[in-house]
Structure to design on (406 residues):
């Protein structure tokens, strides 16, 4: 398998990702996990799960995730797509692998939801023999759950998201190739942002230049809905937006935008300096960099997410900064979901210890911030890391800032 981005296009002169085979393999993994949980079917609404099963690339409306499109996966059958009317004509004409599709309203208004369940979903479930038994659902609003209970009293509603998370956990070779392509775009987006940094430029202008590269190279979405460019004191504590703040000489500037390609996300971030850094800024940057490298060194079979997190913290503590991390996990899974379990460095109750397995992919993103540093004392560095049989494979290649290294 290639460990580089060969190219995004389907061409005749070399073999690339067989998308039809990849799609069937993903559905097969989901079916196996559905069967493992003794579910008669899965009904999914999360954008990433719908795409995993059907390859639908929809228009995404802000704050409407899980309300626009869904998919039903009955045992031993192809996925059934429930899509917005805005997608239906395109689906009919360009997605021949979808053998059954139904138009649905936005899953939000009570009357429309009950109409959907009564007149669309119930007949579909009847056709597939699913009006009783165990139906796994990944995520839905309360109105939909109540409507299901009212119209399908013999149907047991179960957790379906855990099965989908397990299916998505170990990436297939084709998925890893699409992640390489996403990272190639994400690297370019990040470097474009770095190159836009100068005195008198606003954070939002850096984000704009980076986003232009994202779309110029065919990226589908940024990793985050709100492109993250923070400069100077905006990184201590981090302001996770792009604002009208003017970048000044001596500011650390952080860029976290990434890229999606083919439904898969490259989550890459770098910090740079506008001008000349102070000694304290160098110490913080170097602590984050060395922590990142130490954590990646533990990301191989035989070690766990806790081992990697502890290595990151221990390396930072050499600079007296082990207690200065952002109060968020240090890394997360990534794939067809921009941010997915398992996590590295999660400290909240219930966080499991997970051993690294080949095919897992993570975004590792330690962030240390120190208040009161002129020009900002906050640094995050983020790499995309795939677990292999041996040492980790780092997919991202954007450069680090040598001027900030001790």
């Amino acid at each position: 398998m290639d460990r580089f981005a060969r190219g995004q296009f389907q061409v005749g002169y070399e073999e690339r990702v067989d998308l039809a085979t990849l799609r069937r393999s993903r559905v097969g993994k989901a079916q196996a996990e559905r069967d493992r949980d003794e579910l008669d079917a899965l009904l999914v609404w999360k954008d990433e799960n719908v795409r995993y099963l059907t390859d639908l690339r929809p228009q995404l409306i802000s704050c409407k995730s899980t309300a626009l499109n869904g998919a039903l996966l009955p045992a031993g059958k192809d996925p059934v797509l429930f899509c917005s009317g805005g997608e239906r004509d395109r689906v009919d004409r360009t997605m021949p692998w979808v053998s059954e599709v139904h138009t649905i309203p936005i899953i939000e208004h009570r009357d429309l939801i009950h109409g959907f369940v009564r007149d669309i979903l119930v007949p579909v479930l009847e056709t597939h023999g699913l009006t009783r038994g165990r139906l796994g659902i990944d995520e839905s609003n309360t109105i939909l759950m109540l409507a299901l209970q009212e119209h399908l009293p013999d149907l047991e509603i179960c957790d379906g998201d855990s099965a989908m998370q397990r299916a998505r956990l170990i990436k297939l070779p084709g998925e890893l190739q699409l992640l390489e392509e996403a990272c190639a775009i994400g690297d370019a987006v990040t470097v474009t942002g770095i190159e836009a940094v100068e005195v008198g430029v606003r954070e939002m202008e850096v984000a704009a230049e980076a986003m232009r590269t994202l779309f110029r190279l065919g990226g589908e979405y940024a990793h985050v809905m709100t492109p993250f460019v923070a400069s100077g004191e905006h990184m201590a504590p981090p302001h996770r937006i792009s604002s009208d703040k003017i970048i000044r000489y001596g500011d650390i500037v952080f860029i976290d935008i990434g890229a999606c390609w083919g439904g898969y996300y490259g989550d890459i971030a770098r910090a740079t300096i506008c001008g000349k850094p102070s000694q304290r800024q160098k110490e913080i940057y170097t602590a984050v960099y060395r922590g990142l490298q130490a954590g990646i060194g533990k990301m191989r079979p035989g070690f766990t997410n806790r081992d990697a997190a502890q290595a990151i913290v221990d390396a930072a503590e050499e600079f007296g900064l082990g207690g200065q991390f952002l109060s968020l996990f240090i890394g997360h899974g990534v794939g067809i979901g921009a941010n997915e379990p398992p996590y590295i460095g999660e400290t909240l109750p219930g966080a499991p210890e997970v051993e690294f397995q080949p095919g897992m992919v993570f975004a590792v993103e330690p962030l240390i911030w120190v208040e009161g540093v002129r020009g900002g004392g906050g640094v995050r560095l983020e790499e995309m890391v795939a677990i292999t049989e041996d040492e980790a494979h780092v997919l991202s290649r954007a450069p680090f800032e040598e001027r900030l290294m001790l």
User: Anything to note?
Assistant: The chain has two domains: 19-168, 170-404. The first strand starts at residue 41 and ends at 44.
